[in-house]
Design brief:
306 residues; alpha+beta; BirA Bifunctional Protein, domain 2; eight-stranded mixed sheet; three-stranded antiparallel sheet; 13 strands; globular; binds asparagine
Amino acid sequence: MVKTMEDMEKKARLRLVSGILGYTTGFFHMNNFTQLMPVILSSVTDPLGPDPGSTVIKSGEIEYLGQKLTLTQSMILHKQIAIKQGLERIFIISPNVRLEHPERRKSGKHLFEFSQVDFEIAHAKKEDVFRLMEDFMSGAVSHAKACYGDELELLERKLRPIEGPFKIYTTHELRDKHGEDWEKEMSLRSKQPFWALDHSREFYDKEDPARPGHYLNYDLIYPEGFCEGLSGAEREHEYDTIMRKIGKHGIDTVRYKPYLEMAKEGLTPSAGGGFGVERLARYICGARHIGDVQLFRRVPGEPVTI
Ligand code: ASN
């Protein structure tokens, strides 16, 4: 059978996804992380809000033996519980289901089912995560260039080497300078990834005790218009603070009881983050739409065929 250019490009992108998975697993193992298996169904998951960036219309739920279970939106709560249990550096390649509004089809960067590399480090600060991810990114790009040169050439992707430390901005200065669409604007202007700090979002991201109303969280933004790749934070670990923020966000405390009970016993301070495998692959491949790096497309607003 004659292969079309489209088939060859698809195969090249899938080879790169595979390379990224191999590199990622090796990187985290080399850095002494314990790899955990993902959880797909649970009594609780990441509430994903309030977050101005989220358009999830509902969470995926099933009933099993009289219990209401929800599909994982991210493993953040389970990561905190794993850290509490004495694991110090963990990572998980975890399927996430986020039932986004069909409008998101146009963003080029949204999927309603994707894989997140979620990691967490006990007693870490945001700077520890910055250094780790700067090493990770520079290695991931070097690995792609060294081992997947033919695929990158076929895709006509000229990848610039990545060099840390990345520039650091706050969302406040970015918004003042570039308006509400700062992420896209700044990503298009940048040649290297950068950090955007201080987002007002989910309860588990730590509020700066020295500056209430400011948050010890961060996003990593890819350059060349590929936008957000990672979100993370130092975490709230004190029960009273968690309860206060959960109350403010209108989260159902009955539903979150199993997590809250663990928090009451005491969580360990930590920091971490999560990045989508497909977003990283889209950036490395230079793909126009994120659906193009999936073999089985899960794009909001597109019907599922198989
Ligand atoms: N995984 C992210 C984190 O660790 C949370 C998310 O995906 N919303 O902060």
